[in-house]
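Standup notes
- DV: blocked on the single-chain target, sequence here:
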Amino acid sequence: MSSTHAPRSQAGASGVAFLLHLERRLRLLQDTGEILSLSAQLLGQRLGAQQVACFDIDQALQCPTLQHAWSDGLAPGAAGEYFLGDYAAGLAEALGAGQALAVSDVTSDPRTAMPAALATFARLGIRAFLNIPIAKDGQLAALFVVHSRAARLWHADEIELAVQVSERVWSTILRAQAEARLRALSASMETQVAERTREFGRTWNVSPDLLGVLNLDGYFEHSNPAWQATLGWSVEEIRTTRFLELVHPDDLPRTHAAWDAANQGQPALRFENRYRHKLGGWHWLSWVAVPEGEKVYCSARDITVEKKLEADLAARNSERERLWRSAQDLMVAIDAEGCFAAVNPASAAILGWLPEEMLGRSLFDFVLPEDAAATRLALLQVGKESMPSFENRYRHREGGHRWLSWVAAPEGDLVFATGRHVTVEKEAQDTLRSMQESLRHSEMALLQSQKLEALGKLTGGVAHDFNNVLQIISGNLQLLQLGLDDDPLAAKRIASASAAVERGAKLSAQLLAFARRQPLKPLVTDLAQLLRATEELLRRATGETIETRLLLADDCWRALVDPHQLENVILNLAINARDAMDGQGQLTIELSNSVLGSDYAARHADVAPGDYVQLAVSDTGTGIPAELLDKIFEPFFTTKSEGEGTGLGLSMAYGFLRQSGGHLTVDSLPGHGSTFRIYLPRSLEAETELPLQLGGPVLGGKETILVVEDDVQVQTTVVDMLRGLGYVVLRASDGESALAIVGSGVPIDLLFTDVVMPGKVASTALARQARVLLPQLAVLFTSGYTQDAIMQGGRLEPGVELLSKPYRREDLARRIRHLLANGRHVTALHQYRAQLAPQAAPALPAGRHILLVEDNADARAMTGDLLAMLGHTVLAVGTAEEALLLLDTPGLELLLTDISLPQMSGAELAELVARDHPQLAVVFSTGHAPANSGVLDPQARFLVKPFTVEQLQQALLPSSR
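- DV (later): unblocked, structure below
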């Protein structure tokens, strides 16, 4: 397509000169139309164009509005709105990006060669054009256009000139518009100022704020009366005093900085400092200062009162913060969701939880479930009104719980609460209630005892008189018997009367037994042997349909008691049990040791704390109603039918046991039978070795212990106790499981098993089979079956060790340590004797005469043999009491004694030796560490079990001291 191009401008002035000329011309103009007309004319003439126009872009490029245009007179067109259609849509993106568009020929350029656009261009007489976009605030605001009637090639310098002209024109238009608005505003302001001057004068005079106009030298040229009202300074004094001279010295640095900023045109908003009052003191002022020209217009408000209130509030807040942080009570804020919005540091001391660990979490994450319902109800209540007091339990981080007593009050959407730690008080209350309950039981027991005591005195007196009457009757009958000849009828009558006297004597004896007036012959009695001796009699008395079981602890203590009277009591209880079972059931007689503590004694007024032999007689009969339990020991009281009993059997048993220093209780549940427990004080007057009473320090160890216990709670408790002592602990719930562990090959040092076990393998069978697999295994039994005689069974084999339930940790530790030490000691002695046996053992010249005291029979025998093989002469005994009798043996040189002995300890024995036989050397043989042995002599010599032959020989060497 061919086209003709307009010639380039031949003007002599350069493009720069043209632009300078244009700017000089535009400065003189203020009307927008004149600015556009002049610039369009000059540009059109400069470029040799036929038309230059400016379009306003209001909404969219497709419909621009032609506001001003210049034409050489030959080009058509007029002001108005034009529709460019698809053409504008194609150019919108480029123009919106600020790019100038040059089209050399609209008929061949693809951007314009569209029917609708060509029709518009033809109507306007446009063949080539330039479009120069003008943006305002990032949006296309106007469009400069340069039109040519003929096709032409636009050169870069022409396009650049058009862009420069459009930018200058647009900036000139904006300046002119701003000046026009400013002139209008100025005219309006002048009117407003004139109208408001009078109002300002009144405001200036009556304003409570300090108003003033500062010059750049820092003097108030004008100030209102509020200055004098607030600070006491007159207008003249303010005018002649530089304002900085009135500022508090501490505020001068900040005030200088604000003043410098104001001199640079920056206003000051809410700037606070202190000004001096004419009469002294300082006032806080809050300033607003706006610089304008060479003046700074100021307004200040007196905030002295507010500042004081702020300081007071800050002090109160600081005090509250100190209280919050230092309070020993737990202080919290709880939101509407029941979560902690604030927690003070006391949470760590009371609950173990840090405040940050509790924040945001629900309080029910910490409240015990048992207290959750009551806590929710309390929260609902405190949401409506203040809660005076409420108590609940919170979980402690380390386990357990803590009691808290709360007071709370709502404020806004939060509930503020303070919780006082009252766990100690609650425990004290529980203890007090327990003590009160114990006291009540004691009072009831005392009343019952006093009642029985009174009855005893009464029946004792009656029996005494009754015996006197019987004596008279019996004596006279005997006299009559002597004077009789052959009178069968009289003899028969005298025999009948004598039989009645005997029955009366028996009745009297029973009354005396209740009254504790009968003559007794107490002996140190082995109750186990007594029960075995009377077993056949008991079976005959109860009958073949009653299953009679004897559960006798082999290590049972001895008691000082009248065996004949005790047999009568046991037989009486067995007959009562038979009658209660109606001839069908199970009778169980159990014998064990029992230690009654102070707590038990506090609940039973007729018993003192101490060691007792407990004999329990249990049946599976009908039981005794609770309301009759307090009456069954009263004389002549019976539940049997008339003629079937005297009602003196239990009262006789009660009186006899009280007279013997014993104690009798009964536990009964209707429909499940009864258990009568007889407690007889332990007698230490034993002819043979008594069960070892271990003392001294509590020690643990590293050995492995297998615990066999079917009660999960008991098992857990003992396992924790043993692990706390340092032992490795295995556990089993029955004999089968225990045997499986033993058979697995795991090294085990001690078996600790309950006597009564479920399953096919009984505890005694478990011990036997375990020792087959592990010959050196130590075994310790435990039993609490006398607490529930009806459900218990099993019997201990001779020679086993028993620790009765309940036992203390100290007792458990000492018993286990003793067994383990003795076991290792005996094993070592066997080995050493086996090593020495093949060797010749002639009497050595250095052989010594030794007294050996060892309560363990195996250890005593092995040590004695070993000493003999080493060439020493040995006297071996099992107790300190036996050793005392041998201390005067001629030639005795050395005492080798265990510390833990049945009655007198080895340490006590050594003290007596040091006092009465100072020439004897003493060596302590013990399973405890010397530091924990309880021996006070710092030069004492020890032989720690298990010991080697070398250690034994070294210990027997003469002392160097």
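- Follow-up: The longest strand covers residues 585-596.
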